Amino acid sequence: MADSAPQPNLAGSVTMRGEGMNRIETFVAAAFAFAVTMLVISVGSIPQSFEEFVLALKTIPAFAASFAVIVWIWHAHATWCRRYGLEDGMSIFLSSLLVFLVLIYIYPLRLMMQSLFHFLSDGALPFIFPLKTLEQARFMFTFYGIGFLCVGLNFIGLYRYALRRQEPLALSPYEVTEARYDVHVWVVAVCISLLSLILAWVLPAQWLSLAGFTYFLLFPCYTVLDNRHRKALAAIAVQD
Amino acid sequence: MADSAPQPNLAGSVTMRGEGMNRIETFVAAAFAFAVTMLVISVGSIPQSFEEFVLALKTIPAFAASFAVIVWIWHAHATWCRRYGLEDGMSIFLSSLLVFLVLIYIYPLRLMMQSLFHFLSDGALPFIFPLKTLEQARFMFTFYGIGFLCVGLNFIGLYRYALRRQEPLALSPYEVTEARYDVHVWVVAVCISLLSLILAWVLPAQWLSLAGFTYFLLFPCYTVLDNRHRKALAAIAVQD
Amino acid sequence: MADSAPQPNLAGSVTMRGEGMNRIETFVAAAFAFAVTMLVISVGSIPQSFEEFVLALKTIPAFAASFAVIVWIWHAHATWCRRYGLEDGMSIFLSSLLVFLVLIYIYPLRLMMQSLFHFLSDGALPFIFPLKTLEQARFMFTFYGIGFLCVGLNFIGLYRYALRRQEPLALSPYEVTEARYDVHVWVVAVCISLLSLILAWVLPAQWLSLAGFTYFLLFPCYTVLDNRHRKALAAIAVQD
Amino acid sequence: MADSAPQPNLAGSVTMRGEGMNRIETFVAAAFAFAVTMLVISVGSIPQSFEEFVLALKTIPAFAASFAVIVWIWHAHATWCRRYGLEDGMSIFLSSLLVFLVLIYIYPLRLMMQSLFHFLSDGALPFIFPLKTLEQARFMFTFYGIGFLCVGLNFIGLYRYALRRQEPLALSPYEVTEARYDVHVWVVAVCISLLSLILAWVLPAQWLSLAGFTYFLLFPCYTVLDNRHRKALAAIAVQD
Q1: Tens-place pLDDT, residues B154-203
Q2: For chain A, what is the HEC assignment?
Q3: Closest approach of chain C CAs to the CA of B200, in angstroms?
Q4: What does the pLDDT look like over B128-150, one tens digit per residue?
Q5: Which chain A residues are within 8 Å of D32, Cβ to Cβ?
Q6: Which interval of the chain is the signal sequence (chains A, B, C, D) (predicted)?
């Protein structure tokens, strides 16, 4: 409801303070659009024969999953911009940092998704990145864990910054609840990536893939969090 | 008429609810702009001699046709954004899916256009993608058919979603008729791609190219549809 | 003066009807920005040694000249958008066509500028595109001539379209004069490219480079045109 | 304070004349977004093995530093646009020139940062660009010095242009002080690059790296400048 078309600021709605796009958002949108395009159109690998073409098709599931993750991050940032309309030094710093993190993680993300689909399809889908030792596999999971952790901390920073500015922004109680919910969303993401990081170093070789599957815990956690959030919003609505 | 510069909301006009560009549109515009640029400026193939330059020139017709298709899809999406100004979860999901589909289909589209111009020019224009067996050719037509089908279903989804929200958007009867017309436009596209898909598997080898030429049926179908639409709009204008 | 910051619509000023950027402009800006970026950052040619770096530096003058031409075209289009704010079918068609022309011409433009600086620097600046026969050189000049001709015709089309819509746009006499001036600007560009085209085929080998230098006629022609235009505007101001 | 969310124009605040993004900014944002993306996603170097991946990770510090410099320049330009909202010929010329300078310097910047981190990490971080002679090293520092000098002169030009237009823009005394401060910021940058340029040619081989470390003088200089600026602003606030 909070995310639909602009509405008057009733109790139970979020005022969109950043209706017009600002400079950060255009910069972020262009960088993200460019990044996802590069994910697909790998210039060096335009298929030159039918066989290469079929091989390229087999990377579509991994691409789709990576694309979804990037769009999720972009959307989370766009929602933040739209709600608070902040364009000051800290907002620009955190937004630039987010672009930086995404740019660094874009190819590794695709790699991880390829390994996931390689695993799920029992080898039918390709994975072109041979890991030779157990330590290399542990390193990869560590690298992804740190990346996801940083993205999570970045969003916690963005929402906490908005909460710290709740007076000049004149956030309603409803909006404060909304912002706190978003902090919790990303705290969960940070906890799960910490869990994955630990598992990447304590699990024996045959269970190591669990360090990757840990991220699927996001789905049940977010369902629980979302239910609790709806109840909290309902309680505020009753108060008014 | 509905598509010209903003007008007051008289009977027979469409209110532009999304005059200011929103985040989805900037993201989509940047991704599409990047995609068409990549179509032309294939980094790996900057001509280094006069002969290569002339060869590059011969791909211009196929590029022009692919460019026109991408701009058509972009324009269809931009019109949808401008009319309804929706920026909620479903709009972002469907718009991202569209970007995803276009990015996957951009090089194959160019390939198909090259094969078309290779055929039409009786071999004077180049086609650098050898298909060796009949099954490979059937596969290519199937792949394109599915892609075009998905783009069509995506637009049907976008317009049906706008129609489902006609109350909060306060669509006028004129605008409802307009939205339904756009659903029909894409239903026709879906039917034609289904026909092409069937032909790709039932036609004998010597007639297989008809599976590709099926898409030219779009032109007469759209002429008929457009005429019927004008009459429907005239009928509404009379009622007022 | 017409081109400076927004002013109230006094006699002698131009109303900016497209203050907010529309979809075409974002698409065009992204495509042009990407195109100029690709001009410089030729992915395949990141210098790997000091010698390659120095060679790359020698292409800067040609890059600067190409960059200036692209920015000129982009600026001319942005001015048109800003003045008339048109976003209908014909505007999108002509704007897309302009993007298409620029994308096709971006690498050849750089090539032509390289040959110019190679010539002006008496061989000190590099030109990596050997032309072996006289016919090849004539072909190159013809190709550039046609491209510049098409860009010119495209802009004539854009301004004539704005003039045809002068009633719904409510153009003032001042603005009509301004639009007509811009038509003349591009008619001059078209005439000069026609002259270059003719020279490319009638000049003997030793004078062929004159077909390229013809484009420098733009500078004196625009000075004359600009003076006449100022007088015409002064005459309108007197009438009011 | 001047850089935070829009505020009413009290004494001690800056009116944002360019709240809506204009065409130059979108063009600049898109070009810069592409440029930073290209910095990371070097198409030709997608890691194909674990060893290449680890090597790619080692370039992250140099990338982060280059990214920060580009974002700094972009932000400085975006702030200028937002404060003065100028979109005339001179603004477009200076903004285009800035894009041009950044595009030329983007890979060399990364190179210089690599050499810095190579030096700081005592060779643990890679530097893939062998300089063989002392003259080559002097040349590189000269090249960077000139580039930074040009960026600084460009910004001095932008702020001086805004000051020259202070009457039509109706700049308050507070805003004039603010603009003058920004001129000083870039005069310092120009002086430091001049100092680096001189050092690059007078220092003996063993001290040559000091020509690069000269740029770290920016940090203390900006601290001093910022303190003086705060006092000047306080003095104005007292006058009101």
Answers
A1: 999 999 999 998 888 888 888 888 889 999 999 999 999 999 999 999 99
A2: CCCCCCCCCCCCCCCCCCCCCCHHHHHHHHHHHHHHHHHHCCHHHCCCCHHHHHHHHHCHHHHHHHHHHHHHHHHHHHHHHHHHCCCCHHHHHHHHHHHHHHHHHHHHHHHHHHHHHHHHCCCCCCCCCCCCCHHHHHHHHHHHHHHHHHHHHHHHHHHHHHHHCHHHHCCCHHHHHHHHHHHHHHHHHHHHHHHHHHHHHHCCHHHCCHHHHHHHHHHHHHHHHHHHHHHHHHHHHHHC
A3: 32
A4: 666 778 888 888 889 889 999 99
A5: 27
A6: none
